[in-house]
Amino acid sequence: MSYSRTIAELESDLVALRTAAERAGTALACLFSSSDEFEAAVVRVRREQGAYRAQMRARHRLRAALVALIALVFVLF
Fold first, then answer.
1. pTM
2. How many CA atoms lie within 13 A of 7 on its CB side?
């Protein structure tokens, strides 16, 4: 049995093929060779944005305030 295709089916297949070819040309390759490399880049970017420093500064300020309070208590009593 032979299967004959209509012109509309051929045209729809050609449109789908052209669309797939266009999308294939815009596909992006992964910039990282491993997940470790990706995670290191994420951490580096977050550090540059100050994500980790802000927490450390807040902790240091809290510790400094507690030490000052304890010193004040010892001086007063």
1. 0.36
2. 0
